[in-house]
Every structure is written in C-alpha cells, then in structure tokens.
C-alpha cells in the first residue's frame, strides 16, 4: 500500500503524523511526503528565503530518512499559501506521483493558515485524481484514496474521529522530529514550547484519550466516491 | 466476538442494523439483541397492550432466527420510555448478559423519542459495565466495548461517520424484517411508506454514499476508556 | 385551521409568539394556548403558590381574550418542571384537545430550564398523538401538525430558520402582554429590562433581520412523519 | 415569477433540482439555468475540452427543453473553478439576466469543489445585484431573491431545511436527466451508480423523509436584506 | 468573592479545576466545594458503599485542606445520578450555601454521565437561586453568579472558550489530588493512566494551547440574567 | 495599550464596534482604524467610484475624530474584496502600523462577503505579524494581540461569546455614526432600516442579552500563540 502525507512546512509531518507513518512503514507500506512550502518565509533565523529553504529541505530529507519516506517539495512561499490553479496543480501532481491508498493532510479548519489552505486544496482535488484532461504533469491514477486529517496546530479546535496508537514508534518519531534543528531556536515570539515538547504533549494527550501512552488523532474527509476506509489505518 | 444490538421496539434492529449483524454472523461472531420495549403501546391495530406485546415479541423471535441472534426483552412501555434507575438497570443487565465487544444502538439525537432515550441510556451506562456495586442483576464484565449508533428514523438529522457494505446480506435482512407482519398495516397515520420500503430506500441511499449497492451508516460514541475501534466493524 | 401555542409560564406566549398567533387569528384560524405551569413558584411578589397561580392564570385569561384564544392550564410547578409520564400525558392531552395543524413551542435548547423541558416534551410526544393505547385522557387525533419553536429567552443561543412579519399586529401583542401586570415589578434580581421592553427589543431585532419593523423568529422541528410545512406560517 | 437555477456542470441541475423547476414551470413561472462550467475537463470520454463542452452543452440544451428553461453557459473550466473577479462577474451577469425571485444553487459545503465554489460565489454576490457601479455587463436589478441550496453530491453532509414534493413531475425529471447521455458511460472510476440511479435514490430518500414518494431537499441562505421566503417554494 | 466548584465525585475537583481554585485562594477569595455524590458505587476496591463513601469523603476533606476550601457532600449515589426534584433541591441548597460570585461545574456534554448530569442540574437551577418559594432548605441569595464549565473527562469533546494559567499553583494542585489515595489502584478496567498522570497530561495540553506550562480550560454558560463575566476568572 | 479595529467599509466600525473603541479611549488607550475598502462601489448615490471613495473617506475621518482614532485606508474595491497576496500584505501592514494589543475585526462567517473576507484575512495573517521575511512594508512587531470578532451584519448567524457594556458611550457612538451622511439615503433596495436604527436595535438587543441598556457582542479567535485574553476587553 502507498501512503502519502501532505504538509505545509518542513517539520509538520514529523510533529503531527509521523507516528502513523512509522506504523505504516512497520507494516511494509511505502511512505511518501509532499510539502506545499519549504517554510522559506515564516522564520526569523536566517537572512534570506533561499537560505532557509535550503536548510529546511535538508532537515526534511534527514527526517524522511528516519521515516523511510520519499519527499517531494512543491516550494510555494509559506505564510501566505493560497488556493490557486498553480497550487492545485502541484498538489494533484504530488498525489499522482505517490499513487496513494491513504492520504494524511492538514485539517482544513486548522487556525494556522498555511495548514488550512494545504488541507483545503487536498480535499478539493480529490475528484481530479483520475481525470486525463485535468491540468497536471503527472498521469492520472485510478485509486480512490481515503483522506484523513491530522491534528491542527496545538490541537486547537480539533476533535478526533479516530486514533492511532503510536506508542511503540514514539522514540523514532522523536528522532525524526529532532532533525529539524533550525526550528528549535527562533520560536520565541509566539511559541511558548519547543517543537519536541509540543509534539510530545499533544501525543500524550491523544494517548490519554485513546487509552494508550502515545497516539495521533485524525478526522476523516467524506466525499462521494472516496468514502474513508478506517480499516486502512494502522 | 460478541455483538449486541439494542433497539427500542421490535423491528428497529431489522430496519436499522440487521445487515451489519448478518455480516458479523457471516464472520462467525455471536449476535445478541436487546429491546427496551415490546412496542406494546404505539400501535393502533390491537385492542390491548398485552396482545400487541405478545404478537410483536413472537415476530421478533422469528426475525432473530433469520439473524441467528439471541433476544432479551426488557419490556418497558413504549411511546414514553424514560431514563430512570429501572431502565438503566435493565440496560446494564442486557449489556452484561451479552458480554459484547461491539454494541450497536439508536442515535441519542434521533427525533423519535423512544429511540433517543434508548440510545442515551446505553451511552450513559458504559462506565457502569465493570462496577461490582452497580445496581444490577448480572455480574460485572471486564470488556470495553465499542459503541456505534445506527441511523435515526428515516435518516433525519443523521450524518454517518462510517459505513458497512451490506449488499450481500441484503436479501436476508429483508427476510428478517418481513417477519414483523403486524407492522405492515397500521402505519397509515404518519407513515407514507411501509417498513420494507423505508428500510430499502435508506440502505440504498447509504449505499450510494458509500459506493456500493446497500449499506448501513453509523456514528461512533467517544468516551474516555471506551474509544471506538472502527476495525471491529465488519 | 387550528393553531396551538405551548408555553411554560403565563406571559411566555405573549412575550415570544403572540404576534404570530394574532396573524393567524386575522386569517380566521382558531387559536389555543396551553401552559405547562402557572408560574406559581418563580416569583417573589406573593406569599404563596396558590395566590400567584390564581393571579397569573387570571392575567393569562385576560391576555388570551386580546388574542382571541382558548387556554388550558396544565398546572405543574414551575422552576423545576420535569419530563415525566405525568407531564407527557398532560401535554398529549393538550395537543389532542386543540387538534392543531400547527404547534408553536419553546426551543428545547433554551437555557431557561422550564422552557427547554416544555419544548422537549412537546417534541417527544409528537409520535404519540395518533395512538389509541397511549396513556392519555383525550382521544387520539389524526392530524400531523407542523412544530415550530419560538425564540429562547432574550434570544440567547437562538438563530431563526424563518421569520413572521408581525408589524401590523404589534400594538395588539403589546396590549396582550400588558395584561400580565404581576410580572412588571418583581424582576429586579436578574432582569435588567421589564417584560414589554424585552419583547419589543427582541421583536425589533428580528424585524431588522427579516427586513420589516417587527418580527418573530422560529426554528422548525424535523421528524419523520411530521415534516414542517413552512407554508402554514402566516 | 422568475426562477434561476445555478449549477457547476451540465447535468447538475437535472440531478439535483429539476423536479422543483418543473413544479415552478407547472405553476406558470419562468425558468432560467446558468452553469459556471461546461464540464469540459472532468470527463475521460473525450479527447479534448472543446469536444466535451460542445457535447455537454448540446445535451444541456435538450434537457432544458424538457424543463422549458432558458440556459446561459458561463464556460469556465471545471475541476478547478475558483472564486475570482471573473467568475463573480459572470455569476452577477447571470443573476441579472434572469432577474429572479428565487435562486437555487449548490450548497457551499458540498464536498465536491466545483459545486461548493459555485454555491459560494452565488452567496457572495447577493449584495452586488442592485449596485450600478458593480463590475458587470448586465444592468442592476432591484429584486431581493430568496436563495435556496439544493443537495450536495450524493447527499453527503447535507441536512435539508425544507422539502419540495416532486412526485408528480418525477417522470419528466428523469426524461430531462436522460438527455445527458455522455454522462452514462465514463463514471467507472469513482462512481458506483449511474446518474439516473443516483438521482432516483436520492429523491426517494428525501421523499421518505418528507412523507411522499419523491422529493428534493433544500437549505436556505440567510443574509440581511435577502431573508429566504419559504412560501416562494412550489 | 466566593467561588463554588461543583463536582460529581470526590477527586473531580482536584483533577479538573483545583488549579483555578488555588489561584482564587491566592487572591484572597473564599473557596467552596460541593459534590453531588461521594463516589460510593463506581469503585471496585471496597466491599460496600458506606465504606467507600466514608473513605472518599475523608480523602476529599484532606484535599480540601490543601485547597483551603469548605466542602458540602450531597451524597447521592454515583454511576446513575439523575436530574430529579431531590437532586435539584440539593444543588440549589449548595449554591445558596456558598453564595458564590463564580461557579465552576462539569460540562453538560461530558460523555461521563454523572459529570453531565451534575453540570446540567447546575445550569438548570441558575434561575432558581433568588426565588423565595423555590423548594429548598437554604434561603434565597441575590447574586448573579457566572458559571464556567471545566473540562470533560480526558478532554473528550471539549473545546475551551478560555484558559487559566495555573503554572505557579500546579505543585499544590498535585498535592491536593494525591490525597485521593483510594483512586490510585482500582482503575485497571477502563483507565490506562493513573489520576495524577491524567491530570498532568491534560493540564500540560491546555498549557500548550494557552501558551504557558500548565493551564485549565473552561467553557462559559450563557443565559439571560447570568451572562458570564470573564474578568472574574483569576 | 493599542487597539486596532479593522473593517471592510467606512461606517462598519461605527455600526459594529465603536462603543467598545470609545470605552478603550475612555481608559486612555490608543485607537486605530483600518478599512480594507473605501466603499467605492457598493453605493448607488454617486456617479463614479472616486467620488464615492472621497466622500466616504472624508466621513470616516470625521467619525474617527469623534472616536479619537487614527485611520488607515487600504483602498481595495468593495463588493468583491478577495483574499490575495496584495490584500494580505495591506492588512499585515495595517496591523504592524497599529502595533496592537487587541484587534477587533469582522466575523469570518458574516454572510456579507466583504465583511467575511476582511475577517478571514485578519485571522490568516496573525502568524505573519512577527516575521521579518514576510512580504510587507511595515517592520515586524513582537506583540501577540488578542483578536475578537464583532457582530455580523444585522446579527445574522452570530452568537456572541462575550459582551461589552457600552451604555455610557452610546450617545457618542451615535454621533460618530451620524458622520456617515452619505449612507443615510441610498439603502432603499435591500435595507429596510437606516443605519442609525440598525445600530441602535442591534446594540439594544445585545444589551438585553447582557443585562444592560446597550452592549456590543464579540466572538474570540483561538489560535496557538495568540489565545484571546478576555481581560483586555473594556
């Protein structure tokens, strides 16, 4: 089975759904990651966008190595991602590239705008996956993937439909997240916790709700023709 | 695995979730049915409550034979079922009797009052299943069943979380429902369709949404300690 | 056509839906009012419950005269009304007595408890209207009335589905409400406005939303067999 | 009275609201249809967009003949329709062209993206109908139409506010839909049912809820100045 | 100022809102606690209800000492608490006894039934606080307290309106909770975490959302006459 | 403290939140206003957009004088405002210019499109306030403002979280609104009330709910890093 996780910035996958990806990997599935931006703007540590993007993509590739995942960078600007023909086309390409049975994406109601826009685009292009005349660079695919939304930033406004117990892969998830070294300094302005703490506190809370030590929570997207199959979750 | 379906009236199980029960049966699981009332009041065809109850229980037993299910009648009055210590106790007894891994029950927001009250009581007694001092006649059990709500009457106000494809067992479901012969005459006052039609139209509509011919839709109950396990659905 | 308005206390009908009743009256329909309580407890102006009830029922009868309505008092205690076999039976009786095509009742999510309980009971007994074995003192009726909920107290948490323009009957509504003279003194504890102001401000606000001077807002109850017919609204 | 139905693709009107249009027609009203796209992309049966559009517009015109409706094609690309100054302008033009008392449009929460975007644009331009300086090619109109949303694709996530009984015009609706012959082959990828079945199952289900054989369900749009008038529904 | 926290079982206050109570205490306010049950049934560690209640009340009194609070035990049976004239009366008594400016109570949508029923009763009796004829044993009071709901069990289905930073009192909260020694053994059936962990994980998660180390989240109850004053929160 | 109110058109601030601004001013805070459009299109009184904008900006400056506020005009076209890189940049500039502790903005679910889009952009750029690489012309700021949404047009679909008593500043609010003289003639098409009445009826209704004569209601925006501080409300 192919599993595709789509995030807005390098580190989103590792913070929000890498535990589930690691479970899939354990079960022998193929893991793909696509990022709509390389987080080139929303950071104050570097002098220019190119430097940031280069650094963060490098970190993402190292994190992906821990997860055993392939990565595709869509490279739009962050902190202002919008739903346009270009961003839709790039997301369609990414989905066709991964040929997924399951897609994990940001929650469209995430109050963090790049997250929400990414989640919305993914939801909107579901019906465009099989069409041969759709503006895209990758050929159509014929699968009907299930789409699950992972948690919003800090879990604000997010009530999971379903949980995945990630206790046994939690150390590896932490290791993957730790690769995003550039994200552990600059968050002094509106972040009160560092990334590892944010991730650990969130996963413990979802674990508490689910009856295990660590868990990740998901909501399902429901659309005619692509009804979510909960049994595909690990 | 043990599966318990709890309904308010004879015929509710056959109308709303018998397809899923039949799928469970196919897989070798044990099926139990509990009914909070015997529908002794809300019918205009018979002269007294005892006659109705006797007739409808008989029909229910015949329907259960088709499903391969054991039945427990709680025998409260219908069209006015309430959440009281007595009804809670009877529902706790029924759950402990079936020792279920999965419970299927009415949706607590069903606009039909007996349905809603039955669904609410089931939800409320979940934490009482293991307690040895709980007022009950059956001994405590130690399972943490998943609770799924089946559709409201005519699907009003009901948006499923998840679907079960019941296409292959649909003829058998129909056969089970047809045993409730007393329910095919009197519904002239506020029913515009007979029971078989109601059931078939609903299951076709859920099938349409789910991408198959016939389906049953469910919503999950989420509570600390008894988080729903979607993989237990057939 | 027969129209029944069900309220929790004397004055509720006049505050919340008397404009709509007056419109119905204008059109030649028959108006009925039923009150679950006589407001015998939730008032600090009188020394005992009987004195309050007598006074308030008298005021209600005078208000009903302005509306051209018949009144039925169910006489349960207020500030603690509950959903019991007795209150359900009394509400069933009231509905059968009025034989209504349209029912107006409190919104079941009204934060004011007697209002909510009254609204919930009305919703719950809808399916009991035609049953001959239902515990009741009035004979079954065969109509399928539409049920509309009028606004919650001070409109808190209430978003109307539909509006009725009551501009031309507003002076008469005011006259009817003014009959509840006992309710114009004691409300110093938690009321900042007197009853006439509460009513006028609310109706002006709904008028503003609806595009007229004064209006009353309603939400519809949806249940299989009794789907609301919006065309029955005046 | 003038009635305007706005859809995203040829066949949407016939699938979702043609029964209501036929009822209006029966009553002597004028029917107008506007389509934001000609479905030129989201189809795999043809080799190029122009061929598809030509074929589908032709089918739409034949279907419209059955409905007795005039059609306006806005001709944006489907499977990627967006809310832009151009699409807004075209929708404003369409509304002014039809000079409608009632507008029927897609539900803005429809999970199908072209549907949702079409529904959102219609909602957004309501206040632009009368303005003479609004960027548009048709002159301002002075009506305040009521806007009702018809069902989402396969009814997913859709709970109707109100129903229209379409039983007597159902055969004609079927005839109109059957004109979209190109849509009866290719839907093998994510459609499990053909268009006629989708439509019939949906209308039977709404009929079941409404107490008739076939019905169409609607939700109302509420905005200051254009409050929905439910009595304008047939 | 007087602050009253109402819970369903001994330990609920310490798990869910003791941090906020400690902040109030720091500011010089008077703290009151009322418990609808003494948790005499929902525990498997003891042989009889009296023994459990005695033990748990003792623990509650010790916890209250840490909080500097007075305690009132209402002593209904747990795992089946219901909304009755008796439970309403007892809750009215408790509120009048504490004469509070702020009330903290369980969330009425908490999936844990005793919690929900307690929260519902508190909400329902708000308008009964000032009435001299209300069935009660304590004299009426004239304050209009603000009511805030603390988190549901394990935060399931709970989205806070507002947060209180409890970082500096967290060690004391932990000390208070630790007094409930009887609750640290028996929870093996459906609890995966012990009480201290449940509490700490929850408060860290709310702290993460609020931008501090530990926090408690609340939702406000809105009713005419008792609109919540957020400035009364510490 | 700095307070920034962001609106879509000249007069929005005065209609919806000027009372709260006046309370802030009373307390010695600095008031800033930013308008995404100058209402140059959605008016039928003038012959061209420039004339309208000039007139309305002049009125806005006079209204701002009454409020003691500085004004920044972003000057996009109204009746079609969209979320684009340009509008986001202008809103970021406005926020950085005001360096606010509190932001008041339109509700993103306001059915009036320019209002909704303005409210959505403000919400989306919150995380862009501190970033030095964000496309903007004003330097980054380091505050974490609380964002509150004021009421939708005519209060449609709006349920306040919290209220501000504006009784004592109401006459001044009225005086400020009256400066928008151009808006008191042309609204004949879809407005049934003039602006002063709209405002007064709305504020009386919110006062009724809040227990005072006049009030303004707000909803809070919740996002990680910028959790609303209700104590900053006047």
From TrEMBL, chains A, B, C, D, E, F:
The organism's taxonomic lineage, starting at the top: Bacteria, Bacillati, Bacillota, Bacilli, Bacillales
A Pfam family recorded for this sequence: PIG-L
This protein's name: PIG-L family deacetylase
Domain of life: Bacteria
GO function terms (MF aspect): hydrolase activity, acting on carbon-nitrogen (but not peptide) bonds, in linear amides
